[in-house]
Specification:
The chain is an alpha/beta fold. The protein has a domain of 188 residues: Rossmann fold (3-Layer(aba) Sandwich). It has 8 helices and 11 strands. A 9-stranded mixed sheet has the order 1-2-3-5-4-6-7-10-11, sandwiched between helices. The protein has a two-stranded antiparallel ribbon with strand order 8-9. Strand 2 and strand 3 form a beta hairpin. The radius of gyration is 18 Å and the shape is globular.
């Protein structure tokens, strides 16, 4: 059975920055800071885990923030270390470290039952969070969820050039379809990812799970969501395939589908 235990003590300090428009800051015991924004409201609350090299100002996170304000539902979004307004260098981040950030925010900022939403890599993080805090995670919603992507979608397709760069230099600059700057893929990201693989056996998560995946997703094939659904021990699992959906799932109809799915699940687990 897979488990994930956060090594963080429950003593992170939450502080406010000086400007109302600025995000709040969670100060970790090691002095690192995690930027976040929280909307007060009813439970179950929602916590959003973003994707690789994304921050909490993305379309899905902002749209969900606005929806929760309208609905009166508690909502939290945050930046992993090395992302957005949080401290640290992106190149030093790993799946394990980013999962620790999610657990730290979950413990320090949220209260009561929660539904965790994960986009792309955030789908991997949400699963690790559910394993770490099963007593309070009451539901999961994955948007183009990408568990095990470092092994299955990066390392598995890399050829000699990419693998040699990672092994000899410790880094590979991965071209991006979403901007001029490449993604920085490090050897420690790949190696740490192997310590947190979840699709190799039964995955002991028993809360309701909703997975949404675009069939035109060129970054994370929709088969990943099907594989995830198959290994979950939960019986209440559904997969929605969007025929014309891409990886971002950020078109207006995608946003409406996301919000409707999340709010329906929140009502079901209340």
């Amino acid at each position: 059975m897979q488990t994930f235990t956060s090594p963080l003590p429950l003593s992170c300090t939450v502080t406010m920055t000086g400007l109302d428009s600025a995000p709040r800051v969670l100060v970790r015991p090691d002095g690192a800071t995690i930027a976040y924004r929280a909307v007060p409201g009813n439970t179950p609350g929602i916590i959003f885990c973003g994707g690789f090299a994304s921050d909490m100002s993305g379309t899905k996170a902002m749209s969900l923030d606005a929806a929760c304000r309208r609905l009166g539902r508690a909502f939290v979004r945050f930046d992993y270390r090395g992302h957005g307004g949080s401290s640290g260098e992106f190149e030093e981040g790993t799946i394990g470290a980013w999962a620790q950030d999610a657990v730290a925010v979950f413990d320090a900022v949220t209260s009561g039952p929660q539904v965790v939403v994960g986009s792309s890599m955030g789908g991997w993080i949400m699963l690790l969070l559910a394993l770490a805090r099963p007593e309070r995670v009451k539901g999961l919603v994955g948007l183009a969820a990408a568990p095990d992507f470092t092994e299955d979608l990066l390392w598995a397709r890399y050829g000699e050039i990419e693998r040699r760069a990672l092994e000899d230099e410790g880094v590979w600059m991965e071209p991006s379809d979403y901007g001029e700057e490449p993604y920085v893929i490090t050897r420690q990201l790949i190696e740490d990812g192997r310590e947190h693989l979840l699709l190799r056996g039964r995955l002991a998560i028993d809360c309701p799970v909703r997975l949404i995946h675009g069939m035109r997703d060129r970054d994370v094939p929709h088969d990943q969501s099907m594989r995830l659904a198959a290994v979950l021990t939960a019986s209440d699992v559904s997969v929605t395939l969007v025929k014309d959906g891409d990886h971002r799932l950020s078109e207006p109809r995608d946003i409406l589908r996301m919000i409707g799915t999340i709010e329906t699940l929140c009502q079901e687990v209340s």
